[in-house]
Design brief:
This protein has 6 helices and 8 strands, in the order E-H-H-E-H-H-H-E-H-E-E-E-E-E. It is of the alpha+beta class.
Length: 219
């Protein structure tokens, strides 16, 4: 299990060292309103609204909508911040932001929401990611490195990169969720929106672990 909201099983030996580490800069979100009753079932309807910018491309995904409305993670919430960022790109904006997604996950899995926010949450395993993404998106498909370029022709890829041994247990089995928006095959560089910083970044393609493409949001 990962220490940054995502966990994966290491297959085939050691992974390369990652450029972007998961224990780096975290923006100050002390003014967030973490509503006391956010686990109330009546609030599991996130109240998504279409954003004003409808100049969509890539099968309905608009990167400007994502950059405008996505929220940086707090604690070990890269998984949920990443999902919300993609929803924003498809015009689905919620006043609860990624916290509503995290709260729904916590409620469904009998997890204390505070453990997700304060950093003690172990993460989401790779085996559980397709089902989790499938709650919000249609056509969730696994994407390996060989099919990354082709997948990005149709839209963003919910990706996982290797940040190194984040939890300092001596094993590189941690992962960091990002939204991959482009891939420069010639130079071996992936470009992505990073929940860690709330900004665009890039890294070596060798840092890519796996990812999933989608065919739009659930109606």
């Amino acid at each position: 299990m990962g220490g940054d909201g995502y966990g994966y099983d290491v297959i085939g030996g050691d992974l390369q060292e990652c450029v972007i580490t998961a224990d780096g800069y975290r923006p100050d979100h002390s003014d967030y309103d973490y509503q006391d009753d956010i686990l109330d079932d009546e609030q599991n309807d996130y109240g998504y609204e279409h954003s004003g910018d409808q100049d969509n491309d890539r099968e309905g995904f608009n990167i400007n909508n994502m950059l405008k409305n996505a929220q940086p993670q707090v604690g070990n919430c890269c998984v949920f911040a990443g999902i919300y960022a993609m929803l924003c790109g498809y015009g689905q904006v919620s006043p609860l932001g990624w916290l509503g997604i995290a709260a729904s996950y916590a409620n469904s899995n009998n997890i204390d929401l505070n453990s997700i926010i304060d950093g003690s949450f172990d993460g989401v395993s790779s085996g559980d990611m397709p089902e989790l993404l499938g709650q919000y998106f249609d056509g969730v498909s696994p994407i390996d490195m060989g099919s990354l370029s082709e997948a990005l022709n149709d839209g963003p890829v919910y990706g996982v990169i290797n940040p190194g041994d984040v939890d300092k247990d001596g094993i590189e089995n941690d992962g960091h969720a990002v939204i991959i928006t482009d891939f420069d095959e010639e130079h071996g560089t992936i470009y992505y929106w990073d929940p860690e910083t709330g900004e665009s970044g890039n890294g070596a393609v060798g840092d890519y672990i796996q990812g999933w493409s989608v065919n739009g949001v659930k109606k």
